[in-house]
């Protein structure tokens, strides 16, 4: 166990050393979440002004949606991009011939994804409070569970993306940035699930984030914790992690058979 | 009890579709020996090394490293071996010391700081420990790659062209250092190289590969004697060009 934790730390140390040496990388982590928050913050301020109600609940729902969706986005990108860093630095060969197990690799990537997400999202949360008076944590401790559920979903999607990179090499790299954006309409970030056409509601029901945002709206508008949506979010997270974890494992072994681990960066 | 050999390869085969990259390779590398793996481009050396490292799953056959079956127990073997190649980089933006610390963690090296200090002293890295790996000369990169490969005190070292792109002076320094290290540590080394003089100097036994097969093997002196040649380079050319010593003499005299 101790050796296993040390190997995970070795992988994290490698990436933390990279950030210590490069403040632009740190800045880049914060850039998009803050930019998104600013744009949506002004939109909500405008809408709130039209309604003559600066403390509009709608404003809170929009900003809360933006900030929480960034948790999923940054977790997914943090995982996938940390893996890509190894490909770009042509270091993957050394990593894969070290005693680092695939499960430890995944644990290291999840740890780095969490750190990257916190560095990216927390400044945006603080700015939302400072600029627009929106406190994400006014929903109460349940917001930590929302964070956790969205992080798990981000990791699950990233496992799938990493599996695609193992299978298709550099050609699949753009998925690291784009794939979760494709889920945005069905994640019901800014509108209730019932807004979607019935057929698409079935799709949304299978996405953990859609349940998180239903739960967030219940917390913001009614001040209650919706146990059903919270339970569905975590249940689906578990299912996604299991399925996509198996896909990752299968692709890793397929790459060992096909020789893709030797040519993955080419 | 006799210890398990460093490597035991039995009928090692790798097939990519219709292409047979490695064809039924069998050999036993004893503990403490330095062997060479020679062959032209496409002979199957890199594929063989990748299978020995567990990076590539053989289509058929079996590899045990230090007694561990690579199909079932590769991580136990990987903790006791290491690998160096100029074609696999270390993260360029990390300093030399940071890179070595990363691998000390990955290999769970006890007293990592002391080990890194020992390697820095032995491989003359002290002055470059704080420099980013990407800013090093080819010779410095080779020494850092060797330090990475030795960080876990491996019992088996796989070296893929360790002196490629080095000037003769630096290349000679690395070869001398490897000779000394091998004698002191008793580590087994499998060396893939295109530098025949290097192989003659370092290796007690040579596996000659062609089209995925071992076509001949023996000590450099035995191979030279068997082929009627003065050096391994001519043996290599004989095998690569399917010529005999007599044929070569005719070819040379009519050229």
UniProtKB/TrEMBL annotation, chain A:
GO terms for cellular component: ATP-binding cassette (ABC) transporter complex. Residues 14-220 form the ABC-2 type transporter transmembrane domain. Its main location: membrane. This is ABC transporter permease. Coiled coil: none annotated. The chain crosses the membrane at residues 29-49, 55-73, 117-137, 143-166, 175-193, 228-248. It holds the Pfam family ABC2_membrane. It comes from Teichococcus oryzae. It is found in: Membrane. The keyword Transmembrane applies. One of its GO terms (molecular function) is ABC-type transporter activity. InterPro entries: ABC2_TM, ABC_2_transport, Nod_factor_ABC_transporter. It is a multi-pass membrane protein. Keywords: Membrane, Transmembrane, Transmembrane helix.
TrEMBL record, chain B:
InterPro entries: AAA+_ATPase, ABC_transporter-like_ATP-bd, ABC_transporter-like_CS, ABC_transporter_ATP-binding, P-loop_NTPase. Keywords: ATP-binding, Nodulation, Nucleotide-binding, Transport. Pfam families: ABC_tran (PF00005). The keyword Nucleus does not apply. PROSITE patterns: ABC_TRANSPORTER_1 (PS00211), ABC_TRANSPORTER_2 (PS50893). GO terms for molecular function: ATP binding; ATP hydrolysis activity. Residues 7-236 form the ABC transporter domain. PANTHER family: ABC TRANSPORTER ATP-BINDING PROTEIN, ABC TRANSPORTER ATP-BINDING PROTEIN NATA. Belongs to the ABC transporter superfamily. This is ABC transporter ATP-binding protein.
